């Protein structure tokens, strides 16, 4: 019982704690979705002359570092990283199938790629920037390592990867685990009923000692010469 995480135990306290964590996580996800929509999908007509599409990874990041004011650099890079951190924390809590570092990062990249595409096609004053997707994915990476991984393992049983299942040892069969029977004389392996009547036991022993096969009594009578 002590090896099982507290939130996975079959008690009413653990079930209540799991429900509270899931409700809080759902509320945080809704709040985060609203904040993400306001930050990324609200038109900004004043920014039209300043925005441009970036399809080359690293171009915008180099431009951020080239700014003379370091506070703008921190705002642009740090803001995009912070924007991705809730994915790394909330996805393992609300969606158990997305647990795992690679899955969380890929899911974040897919969502933010969709958001950036909507920005470039539908929102005035916004443009598609591949570097924003990279920074958001980096933020989800950090969020998963800081908190999301521990929350996911506390709520759900540990997931077995495909390479762990392939490397699992094969359990021996019943025939392999059965104890070996001691090998005795051929006569000892015969069932008791095969020896015939109780009176023939001594004869069977004499036959085994002499090395000659034992014959039933009726055959002995047949083999006797008729006088």
SSE order and pairing:
Elements (H helix, E strand, L loop, with lengths): L11 H29 L18 H7 L4 H25 L6 H22 L7 H26 L6 H5 L7 H4 L23 H10 L6 H7 L4
Q: Helix/strand-derived class?
A: mainly alpha
Helix-strand topology string = HHHHHHHHH
Share in helix: 55-70%
Mean pLDDT, as a whole number?
79
Q: Quote the beta fraction.
A: under 5%
End-to-end Cα distance, whole Å, is 88 Å
Low-confidence stretches: 189-199
Rg, nearest Å: 39 Å
Largest beta-sheet characterization: none
Tally of helical segments = 9
Structural shape: elongated
Number of strands: 0
Question: Quick gist of this model?
Answer:
The protein is an all-alpha fold. The protein has helices at 12-40, 59-65, 70-94, 101-122, 130-155, 162-166, 174-177, 201-210, 217-223. The radius of gyration is 39 Å and the shape is elongated.
Describe the structure.
By secondary structure, the protein is mainly alpha-helical. Helix content is 59%, strand content 0%. The chain has nine helices and no strands. The chain has helices at 12-40, 59-65, 70-94, 101-122, 130-155, 162-166, 174-177, 201-210, 217-223. The longest helix has 29 residues, at 12-40. Mean pLDDT is 79; it is low at 189-199.
């Amino acid at each position: 019982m002590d090896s099982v995480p507290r939130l996975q135990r079959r008690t009413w306290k653990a079930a209540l704690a799991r429900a509270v964590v899931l409700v809080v996580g759902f509320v945080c996800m809704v709040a985060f979705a609203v904040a993400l929509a306001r930050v990324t999908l609200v038109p900004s007509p004043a920014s039209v002359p300043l925005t441009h599409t970036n399809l080359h990874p690293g171009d915008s990041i180099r431009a951020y570092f080239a700014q003379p004011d370091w506070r703008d650099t921190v705002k642009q890079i740090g803001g995009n990283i912070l924007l991705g951190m809730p994915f790394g924390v909330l996805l393992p809590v609300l969606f158990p199938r997305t647990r795992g570092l690679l899955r969380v990062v890929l899911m974040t990249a897919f969502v933010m790629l969709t958001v950036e595409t909507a920005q470039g096609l539908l929102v005035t004053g916004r443009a598609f920037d591949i570097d924003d997707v990279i920074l958001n994915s980096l933020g989800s990476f950090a969020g998963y390592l800081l908190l999301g991984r521990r929350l996911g393992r506390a709520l759900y049983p540990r997931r077995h990867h495909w390479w762990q299942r392939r490397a699992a040892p094969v359990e021996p069969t019943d025939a392999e685990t059965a104890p070996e029977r001691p090998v005795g004389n051929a006569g000892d392996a015969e069932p008791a009923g095969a020896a015939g009547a109780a009176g023939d036991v001594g004869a069977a022993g004499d036959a085994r000692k002499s090395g000659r096969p034992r014959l039933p009594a009726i055959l002995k009578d047949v083999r006797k010469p008729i006088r």
